[in-house]
Design a protein that fits this description.
Elements (H helix, E strand, L loop, with lengths): L1 H16 L3 H72 L3 H4 L2 H19 L2 E3 L12 E7 L9 E6 L2 E3 L2 E4 L1 E6 L1
Parallel strand pairs: 2-6
Antiparallel strand pairs: 1-4, 3-6, 4-5
C-alpha cells in the first residue's frame, strides 16, 4: 500500500506540472486506476475472509453432526443393554432340559442378532476376566482372594461393560483379585 501512495504522490506532482488537457486526463485516469486496484484488493481480501468463514462454519457443522450421531447411538445402546444383560443372565441359567430344545436355539439366535446389532454400530464389549483392573473401563464392586489370578486382575465379571471406540458407554462391573 505504501508503494501505491508513493505512486499517487508522483502522479499528483506530475499532474501539477502538466499543462495540456490530455496530460491532465492521463493523470486522472492513472489515479482512477490506482483507486480501482486498491478497491479490488480490498474486495478480494473480503471475499477470501468470507470463504474462510464459510469453510470454518462447514467444519463446525460437520463436527456437530458427528457428535449428535454419536450421542444418539450411545443413547440407543444404553437402552438396549439392560435387555441384553437380562438375556445373557437367562441364557447362563437355563435348565438342562430346556437347553436341548429348538426353542432355546431360537433364543440363542435372537441373542446373536442383538450382539450383531451392537457390533454393526461399533459397540464392543470391554474385556474383563483375566485383564488387569483398569478404572477407566472397570468398576470394582469387591475384591476376593484368588489362587488363579495375581492381585489387581479381574477375576469375575458381574455386568458386561461396553464402549464405542474410545468412549466408554458403560464400565464393566467386576470383582478383582486381592
Amino acid at each position: 500500500m505504501s508503494d501505491e501512495k508513493a505512486q499517487e504522490e508522483v502522479l499528483e506532482a506530475d499532474a501539477a506540472e502538466t499543462s495540456t488537457p490530455e496530460e491532465a486526463q492521463e493523470v486522472d485516469l492513472a489515479q482512477m486506476l490506482v483507486a480501482s486496484q486498491e478497491e479490488a484488493a480490498k474486495n478480494l481480501e473480503g471475499w477470501q475472509r468470507a470463504l474462510a468463514d464459510l469453510a470454518n462454519a462447514r467444519k463446525r457443522f460437520e463436527k456437530q453432526s458427528q457428535m449428535a450421531y454419536e450421542n444418539a447411538t450411545v443413547e440407543v445402546v444404553n437402552k438396549l443393554l439392560p435387555a441384553i444383560d437380562d438375556f445373557d443372565r437367562a441364557m447362563d441359567n437355563v435348565p438342562a432340559d430346556v437347553a436341548e430344545t429348538s426353542w432355546f436355539d431360537g433364543m440363542k439366535g435372537i441373542l446373536r442378532k442383538l450382539n450383531s446389532i451392537l457390533e454393526n454400530i461399533n459397540a464392543e464389549r470391554i474385556p474383563a476376566v483375566g485383564e488387569p483392573f483398569d478404572p477407566n473401563v472397570h468398576d470394582a464392586l469387591s475384591t476376593e482372594d484368588s489362587d488363579e489370578y495375581e492381585s489387581g486382575v479381574v477375576i469375575r465379571e458381574l455386568v458386561a461393560g461396553y464402549r464405542i471406540g474410545d468412549r466408554v458407554i458403560r464400565p464393566a462391573l467386576v470383582v478383582v483379585a486381592a
